[in-house]
Amino acid sequence: MSPSRFTPELIAKCWRDALALWDVQVRLSPPEPHVPFRADADPANEPLAYINMVKRQVFVNFHLLESMSAEASLMAVLAHEIGHHARFPHTLGWDAELKVMEQRLLPGLKQSLTNFFYDLQVNEVVGRTHWEDLCRVYRNFQRVYARREMSPLFFFYLSIHEELWGCEPGTLVPRTELRAMEERFPGLRVEARVFAQTFYALPDPRLQFLYFCATFLRYLSGPDDGTGAMPMASDVPTPDVDDWDSALQSGGRWEDALGEARERGWLSADQVSSAPDALANIDRITRSLPGTGDGKLRRALVSRHYRREVDKHLLKLPAAPNRVEPYLRTTPEAWEYGDDPSAIDWTLTVLSRGHLAAVSPLRRELEAEEPPGTEPGVPELEIYLDTSGSMPNPELQLNAMTLAAQVLSASALRKQARVRGIIYSHGSPLVSPWMYDEEHARDFFLHYIGGGTQLPFDVLRQSAREKRDVLRVIISDSDFLANATTDDHMDMLVEAVRGSRMLVALLSLADDVHARQTLAPVVRERGFRLVVVKWLSDFGPAAAALSQALLEK
Asked: pLDDT tens, 124-173?
């Protein structure tokens, strides 16, 4: 059949019928042809249909449908995609919530099974009237594009559809593999029949998902197992950072469902472990996601976790806007290919370049106006944070010293003060510019170096010489005492105290007797304060009390 089979009139009719099947009105543009993501892409790995939520556009791989001789299934394919958008999962927050629970039940799973879960829900509705069209898609895809033995996971998934729609065994799965699969997984066919009878009768979607995971677990040989090539896969958009953050806080809503799953015998006590630590959970989730190698998602989720921890220790204070919106135009420059087109100032370009405006545009970036100064009497704050190997990486485990730095910086920024951070361990420290908003400060104080401890006394002294009316806080442990007594560091520390409004050493120590003896030359200075924290868990409250004393009173 020629490509002209998919005429605009046919596509429009199938789209209307698909909407009518779900009885919904959606804000999506009618289907457009899918363009391969890569020119040399394997057709089996290209999506059959999907929804681009940025453009709110439905795309259909008409060429793939034609190559499978499944043109008559267009309406069923469109109804399948609308079902994902309108009902299953309906929201990406729910999708993220399921994937968080999935990682708790199946730790380290590389390829999520949630698409299988949603497809079972969608296909039950669409298949009530168009099961033959869906069968045609699954059957013909395997006949044309299957290049190796079907995975047990996909085999069981298709067996459920055969039982759901009353098909003869071998209608969707390869007949040649029926005996081998039954020998490898005794009772597979019976389990598929029981699943089809039980899954759709469960009253709660959380129970459905737990039953789904408990059943499909049998057909996974390991966390690296995949589904293989299949039609209508990867057609659910990816949750964003807000969805993931909300899902990570939803664990309490699952406890009743987990308890019932244990009572029904679906899951054993070993399979349902206690909820993991928040940071460990973030690490587990982000490691399993494709395209997260740069760590941006993990850093954003960790940052939000620390924000919640900070808010536990601080009073809610009227805050300046977190991020100042840029609106001042900078000096014009020549726009070059690859630059952001939105940066082009067409008015200026036309006025200055005349008829050459189209070929030689000018661009001007936007910058933010410097925020107003601090409240009267609130000093700028400079924090020296020890990130040596004795403390954990704050992205993987709660770091009490990092939390203390976050509490202090948030306190100052909420009083409209500026904050500067120096993160050190051994070697060159990380030095931030003066920061105005909590988000930037929170992100900066999540950096970690590891290794030995060496306070950058030269940076401290130079900073004290350049800006005297600054409150400086050093967050460290007993290694600070060892650093201070070597070379001429004690003299440099005294000079830094005299060049600061106040210098505070917030140290994790068993007691302050030895510290006061070691730091005697500095302790005598009027502008020095020593704060001892005996337990790491007290760093957050101590930092909150310190900020209250220094910034409020």
From this structure: 999 999 999 999 999 998 888 776 778 899 999 999 999 999 999 999 99
CB atoms inside a 10 Å sphere around CB 362: 21
pLDDT on residue 188: 97
Classified as helix, coil or strand, 253 is: helix
The CA-to-CA distance between both ends of the chain, in Å, stands at: 81
Residue 319 pLDDT = 47
**CA dist., res. 131 & res. 123, Å (int):** 8
In degrees rounded to 5, what are phi and psi of residue 275? -60, 135
pLDDT of residue 436: 92
Contact 129, 17 (CB under 8 A): no
Residue 51, burial from CB neighbour count under 10 angstroms (0-12, 13-18, 19+)? buried
**pLDDT on residue 369:** 60
**Cβ proximity of 323 and 437 under 8 Å:** yes
The list of the chain residues with pLDDT below 70 reads 1-4, 147, 226-229, 235, 273-275, 290-294, 315-328, 368-377, 553
Cα angle value 186/190/216 (rounded, 5°): 75
Q: What are the structure tokens assigned to 243, written together?
A: 């969805």
- Please give the structure tokens belonging to residue 57: 């556009």
- pTM of the full predicted structure? 0.80
pLDDT recorded at residue 325: 59
Contacts (Cβ under 8 Å, ≥6 apart) of 464: 470, 472, 495, 496, 498, 499, 500
Helix (H) or strand (E) holding 50: strand 49-52
Residue 223 backbone phi and psi in degrees, to 5? -65, -20
Q: Can you read off the two tokens belonging to residue 92?
A: 């990406």
Quote the pLDDT of residue 1.
39
Give the per-residue SS3 of 391-459.
CCCCCCCCCHHHHHHHHHHHHHHCCCCCEEEEEECCCCCEECCCECCHHHHHHHCCCCCCCCCCCCHHH
Q: Which of 206, 205, 298, 311 is nearest to 244 (CA)?
A: 298
The dihedral of CA 261, 264, 268, 274: what is its sign? positive
What count of residues does the chain have? 553
Tally Cβ neighbours within 10 Å of residue 517.
Answer: 10
The answer for residues whose C-beta is within 8 angstroms of residue 112's C-beta and 6 or more apart is 99, 102, 288
Greatest pairwise CA separation for the chain in angstroms: 92
Residue 264 backbone zone (phi > 0: left; psi -120 to 50: alpha; other: beta): alpha
Q: Tell me: the pLDDT tens digits for 191-220?
A: 999 999 999 999 999 999 999 999 999 999
